[in-house]
Amino acid sequence: MPVDYRRIAGPEVTQRVVVSGEKALDKSLIGGDCLRRDGRKTDELRPIFLRSGVVSQARGSAYIEMQNTKVTCAVIRYGPRESQRQQEFSKKDSEEKELSTFAVRALQPAVCLVQKGDTSLVDPTFQETSSSDIDGRVTVAFLPTMNVVSGLSQDGEMTQDQSTKAIKCGMEGCARILPVLQEALVDTIKRTANSNCKS
């Protein structure tokens, strides 16, 4: 069978993020075995695979895989350019503009979670965020080494206590992602150094 060399060969197994603690459970999103539909605990992140420098023609690029979610990003080599012609149908709605502005400001490790009563689901799946049974959704961008929240977005109705708890949960999730990010960057630096030594 022919091999598609343009496709990034993802890992056989993704790296599991360290998880601690148990949370209160919501029966509509959580099964009787105290696990979510995909088998994770309420505060458990999906396994993560990261690699930077995946697009050789770009100044910077990255690939992230979290179970069925796979994303490749690249920095444009010669900088952004203004579009030659603008089309009426390509206008963004207000939510899309808000999310893109949030992403530009935060460009840091971020964790999204949904809230139902006293239960916070860290790193929710599409089905969990689409559930009509959730009270709200919080996305947190946090710099663990500086202990700074660089971005925060909240949708839905939550009490002040629920909101505070959700933000703390998001910050803890970001802190658990940090070692995986650091390992991916160290791996990239080693690969770059090895390729420079061979040249």
TrEMBL record:
<comment type="similarity">
    <text>Belongs to the RNase PH family.</text>
</comment>
<keyword id="KW-0539">Nucleus</keyword>
<dbReference type="GO" id="GO:0005730">
    <property type="term" value="C:nucleolus"/>
</dbReference>
<protein>
    <submittedName>
        <fullName>Exosome complex component MTR3</fullName>
    </submittedName>
</protein>
<dbReference type="GO" id="GO:0034475">
    <property type="term" value="P:U4 snRNA 3'-end processing"/>
</dbReference>
<dbReference type="InterPro" id="IPR050080">
    <property type="entry name" value="RNase_PH"/>
</dbReference>
<dbReference type="GO" id="GO:0006364">
    <property type="term" value="P:rRNA processing"/>
</dbReference>
<dbReference type="InterPro" id="IPR036345">
    <property type="entry name" value="ExoRNase_PH_dom2_sf"/>
</dbReference>
<dbReference type="Pfam" id="PF03725">
    <property type="entry name" value="RNase_PH_C"/>
</dbReference>
<dbReference type="InterPro" id="IPR027408">
    <property type="entry name" value="PNPase/RNase_PH_dom_sf"/>
</dbReference>
<dbReference type="GO" id="GO:0000176">
    <property type="term" value="C:nuclear exosome (RNase complex)"/>
</dbReference>
<dbReference type="InterPro" id="IPR001247">
    <property type="entry name" value="ExoRNase_PH_dom1"/>
</dbReference>
<keyword id="KW-0698">rRNA processing</keyword>
<feature type="domain" description="Exoribonuclease phosphorolytic">
    <location>
        <begin position="117"/>
        <end position="173"/>
    </location>
</feature>
<dbReference type="Pfam" id="PF01138">
    <property type="entry name" value="RNase_PH"/>
</dbReference>
<feature type="domain" description="Exoribonuclease phosphorolytic">
    <location>
        <begin position="44"/>
        <end position="87"/>
    </location>
</feature>
<dbReference type="GO" id="GO:0071028">
    <property type="term" value="P:nuclear mRNA surveillance"/>
</dbReference>
<dbReference type="InterPro" id="IPR015847">
    <property type="entry name" value="ExoRNase_PH_dom2"/>
</dbReference>
<dbReference type="GO" id="GO:0016075">
    <property type="term" value="P:rRNA catabolic process"/>
</dbReference>
<dbReference type="GO" id="GO:0071051">
    <property type="term" value="P:poly(A)-dependent snoRNA 3'-end processing"/>
</dbReference>
<dbReference type="InterPro" id="IPR020568">
    <property type="entry name" value="Ribosomal_Su5_D2-typ_SF"/>
</dbReference>
<keyword id="KW-0694">RNA-binding</keyword>
<dbReference type="GO" id="GO:0003723">
    <property type="term" value="F:RNA binding"/>
</dbReference>
<keyword id="KW-0963">Cytoplasm</keyword>
<dbReference type="GO" id="GO:0000177">
    <property type="term" value="C:cytoplasmic exosome (RNase complex)"/>
</dbReference>
<keyword id="KW-0271">Exosome</keyword>
